[in-house]
Amino acid sequence: MDKNTEMPQNAQQVREVLASRLHMQSEKQLRRTLTAQTSVQDRNYNFSSNDYLGLSQHPEVIAAFQKGISDWGTGAGASPLVTGYTTAHQTLAEELAEWFGVERVLLFNSGFSANQGVLQVLCKLGLTPIIDKLCHASIYDGVNYPSSQRLARFQHNNYADLAAKQSKLPANTCPLIVSEGVFSMDGDSADVSALVAAKNTGMLMLDDAHGIGVTGARGRGVFDHPQAPEIDIVTGTFGKAFGVAGAFVATDHQIADSLVQSARHLIYSTAFAPAQADAIRAALNTIKRDQSLQSALTERIQLFKRNAAALKLRLGASDTAIQPLLVGSNTLALRLSQALADSGFQCIAIRPPTVPKGTARIRFTLSLNQSLSAINQLFATIADILDNDQELTDACRIR
Ligand SMILES: *Cc1c(COP(=O)(O)O)cnc(C)c1O
């Protein structure tokens, strides 16, 4: 059954469609699988986690979570507008707003729901989103891609293309430019000044899931940019550098109040646990207090890049903790990932549709959970693997 021409009309046809898709995904080396980590797995050799600062293992964050559970119990028990919003959430939101230098912060259960929730509200209001092509799936879902009639996409970080797409929008529409502080699969960054200049009389939203806590002079991600006050909305997650889970939307009073009226992911979903808010606050305080976290991460990024350059590996143009090795074919990316796994390194292959076709990659991430010597060991292992595999060498090396 061709999915474009015929829709399944009964359960048996649904099963046939599912079976044929799963078969095809296996054939193309695109089948995804869930693999469970064990609690004793060595994080030193995990090169795929977004726990950049190692805060998921930090004694103060753990202690705050534990104390929070003693104080509050395990769950919030209701959505934020009912009785799920506690002083733990409120204090966290206020401390974040002050640190970011914004009027208001709202808390969401995940970065995915924050992006989708905010964008649904703005699109319903009639704004026309113009998104960077490499934006995250949650942004695509928020703007209802590909069903939305009113939507433009510009080439990744290409502001001439952004201007060209903008000029083609109907005159009676307010553009909403959407991009990311640090791109999740490439590790490169948007140019905040260029985006602020481009927004003109429209609005600008940035997702800084991978920048908050890590990039910028004070670890405030895009908020460390001098033009941050010009960004209308910033979203970010507590699941990455903060080492916990949950997310924020940072904006002004009017937009925040409007989201409280209509963001469905906020209104109709149980608030995250108050103890979790306490843990996130502990992570925030650690990030604010200890600037050495960022310099230790930078040391790892630089060591990684030096090693990769010595092996002439085809890395993406990234200065962040996300360092993609562009392999190209799905099969070869999986082969390298498996060979590294056989030597004890977790380095996950990222394939389409998460990344564009023909750009399968190993997305390495650096973290304070890794020792410097683990990074050196990783490259000794990569060198060994490539020495014994000409096809992989051709795929991974710059000629
Ligand atoms: C991880 C990620 C999200 C989702 O955040 P979660 O809190 O994990 O749901 C959103 N945007 C980007 C760019 C991300 O990388």
Global shape: globular
SS content category: alpha/beta
The arrangement of helices and strands along the chain is HHHHEHEHEHEHEEEHHHHEHEEHH
Distance between the termini: 44 Å
Number of helices: 15
* Overall average residue pLDDT: 96
Bound molecules: pyridoxal-5'-phosphate
Rg value:
22 Å
Low-confidence stretches: none
Helix content: 40-55%
Proportion in β-strands: 5-15%
Biggest sheet: strands, sense, closure?
A: 7 strands, mixed
**Strand tally:** 10
Q: For the largest sheet, list the strands in their spatial order.
A: 1-7-6-5-4-2-3
Describe the protein.
This protein has helices at residues 11-27, 59-72, 80-84, 87-100, 111-125, 137-142, 159-167, 192-199, 253-262, 264-267, 274-289, 292-310, 330-342, 372-387, 390-396; strands spanning 104-108, 128-132, 152-154, 175-180, 203-207, 233-237, 247-251, 322-328, 349-350, 360-365. With 399 residues, it is α/β, with parallel strands linked by helices. The strands form 2 sheets. Strands 1-7-6-5-4-2-3 form a 7-stranded mixed beta sheet, with helices on both faces. A 3-stranded antiparallel beta sheet has the order 8-10-9. Helix 6 links the parallel strand 2 (128-132) and strand 3. The mean pLDDT is 96. Residues 110-112, 115, 136, 138, 180, 184, 207, 209-210, 237, 239, 247 line the site of pyridoxal-5'-phosphate. Pyridoxal-5'-phosphate binds next to helix 5.
